[in-house]
Structures are given as C-alpha cells and as structure tokens.
Amino acid sequence: MGEKRKSQQNGSLAKKPKGSSKPKKSNGSARIEDAQPPIPYPQAVDGSSFSEATVRLTVTLAPTHSQDHWAGIHETLNSMLLHYVPQIRGVVLSYSKAKVLSSAALLVNDSPYGQLDVSARLLLWRPVSGMSLKGTINVQSPDHIGLLLWDTFNASIPASFIPKTKYEWRPFSDEEVAARAQATGGGGGSAADSGSDEEAAGTSGAHGAAFGSGEWVLKGTSQCVGSSGGLEFVVVDVVRADNVLSVTGALR
C-alpha cells in the first residue's frame, strides 16, 4: 500500500496544471513591426507654388558696361534665372519691369566696379511643405517614383511615402519587358521609326517603356499610377542643393 501511494504522489507531481504554462506572446507585435510606419503628412497649404515679387537689388557694373549700364543689369538678372536665390527664397523664373533707382553708379574706394540700385518684378517658384503638386512620371522603381514638374524641376516620392494599403509594386513579366523594349526601337526598324516610337513612349506618361522592371499600381488592380497623364502628390520636404531645388513628396 505504501508503494502504491508513493507512485500516485509521483504521478501527481509529473502532471502540470493546464494553467501553469506561460502564455505565448501574440504575433501582434511582429505584425506591427512589419507594418508601414505612418507617413508624416504636413499640414495642408493652399495656393500656388508660383508667386511674383518686386525686389530691390544692387548691381555691380564692370568697367566694360560703363557706357551701357543696361547690358550689365540684364547680365546680372539673367544670371539669376532658374537659380535659387536665398535672399528672395525662391527660384527665379523670369523678370520684368526692371528700373534703375540710382541717379548714377557709385564707385567705392579704388574699385573700378560701379554699384547701381535697381528694382525688378520677378516670377518665382516657391514650393513649401504641405502643398499639392502634380508632375509627370519619368522613372519608377521599387524604391521610389521620380517625377518632372513643368519639364523643369525634379521631384521624388520614396517608397516609404507610398501608402501600401492603396498601392503596390507590380513587376513586369518577361513578355512586357520585351514588348516595351521593342516599342522603344530595340526590335529594329529605321531611325525615323525609332525616333517616332521614342517620342510616343515619352508622351505615354506612366506607360513609358523606360520604367525598368515594373510599375506602381492601385492595389488589387492593374491600373498604374499617373495613368491619367500626371500624378498628384503632397510636398513633404523641399531640398536645396547649391542653387537647385528638388521636392520630396508623398502619395495620399
């Protein structure tokens, strides 16, 4: 009897109660880590990225322009075109209504260069965070979408700023790659035909053949972004490199 009781006690020790095991961690944390971080959309800003401003500036005239001060003024204003000017906080696109404010050029100390005060009306490009812009797609990759604004300025939408709940990357099939290569003249033909094909491909928007290995599409469909002729996005950041501005955007 004593041995039987001992074996029963050992059996009870061997059996662990059902609730004694530690609860397993749910996969919710892993899913949260895999989820896309929230996109830092800035506060919306209404208005155009273009503006006009009348500015006053001092033009330094070289001795060669002493007989024709307007040549020196236009030379200075022309050098500002398509450049970002920090004092004006914008890219100068054009100027008009230039006016001389000084009665005569001022010579300082022994310098042969004269200083002349002038005013001009400037057309500026001033994109700011929160604005909505529309550009033409010129490159697509799994990492980003590249755009051209008004055939002049560059914009980029990183993949981290593309909502994965609405958009997805669709790789091209081998047949699509071959067809796009042929559309750009890779399949032979005359130079004239090749040139016309390239022009057609360049004007086809998001369907251009130079988009590499795939394209961004609306999730669950085959409709590529920018298929309507342009892609609208929100300006997240404006990047200045030397005298050039570029825009970083995000899709809604």
TrEMBL record:
An individual GO BP term: DNA-templated transcription initiation
Localisation per UniProt entry: Nucleus
InterPro entries: RNA_pol_Rpb7-like_N_sf, RPA43_OB, Rpb7-like
Ranges for region Disordered: 1-45, 180-207
A Pfam family this chain is assigned to: RPA43_OB
Chain ranges of the RPA43 OB domain: 127-251
Comp. bias (Basic residues): 15-25
Domain of life, source organism: Eukaryota
One Gene Ontology term, aspect cellular component: RNA polymerase I complex
UniProt key word Transcription: yes
Record's keyword terms, sorted: DNA-directed RNA polymerase, Nucleus, Transcription
Chief site of localization: nucleus
PANTHER family reported in the protein's UniProt record: DNA-DIRECTED RNA POLYMERASE I SUBUNIT RPA43 (PTHR12709:SF5), DNA-DIRECTED RNA POLYMERASE II, III (PTHR12709)
Protein name according to UniProt: RPA43 OB domain-containing protein
Organism of derivation: Coemansia javaensis
